[in-house]
């Protein structure tokens, strides 16, 4: 399967989740997932698609969590474009 912009947006969301939680995306060290089971569930998708947790003890911008969730939306056409992401991130910067 060739790379797509929508796939890049999904990958961006996974990386953001790691930055927010300061853990690997699925925190496999602390989960009971079997690696093959996890891969199957991610590929299968659907309504009960599996995504990393965004729970953290630190405070972070709730809008960033919403952006991440939008970026890993199972419906590829529902994910924001790169230009939309850039605009939303600029809006998160409260120093400007």
UniProtKB/TrEMBL annotation:
The lineage of its organism: Eukaryota, Metazoa, Ecdysozoa, Nematoda, Chromadorea. One of its GO terms (biological process) is receptor guanylyl cyclase signaling pathway. One of its GO terms (molecular function) is peptide receptor activity. It comes from Teladorsagia circumcincta. Keywords: Lyase, Nucleotide-binding. InterPro entries: Cyclic_nucleotide_synthase (IPR050401), Kinase-like_dom_sf (IPR011009), Ser-Thr/Tyr_kinase_cat_dom (IPR001245). Gene3D superfamilies: Transferase(Phosphotransferase) domain 1. Residues 4-87 form the Serine-threonine/tyrosine-protein kinase catalytic domain. GO terms for cellular component: plasma membrane. This is Serine-threonine/tyrosine-protein kinase catalytic domain-containing protein. The keyword Glycoprotein does not apply.
